[in-house]
Amino acid sequence: MDYGTLRGLVALLILALFIIIVVWSYSKKRKDSFDDVANSIFEEDKVNTADKKRHLDKDSKQETNNNV
Questions:
Q1: Distances (CA, A) of 42 to 25, 32, 37
Q2: What stretches pass through the bilayer (predicted)?
């Protein structure tokens, strides 16, 4: 097996892996889970905003010592 044949086999392997990944990512079985993950950023944003407000309220009530 010479270098050109090896390069051709590696190229075919990479092409096959690419096709498998594309088919997997666009399959109907994965659509629901991908949609959930895509929309999760909006749900986390609401939770994080509420947590930040609580955290800011707690910090405003605490006194700090800046003389360190």
A1: 22, 16, 10
A2: 6-26
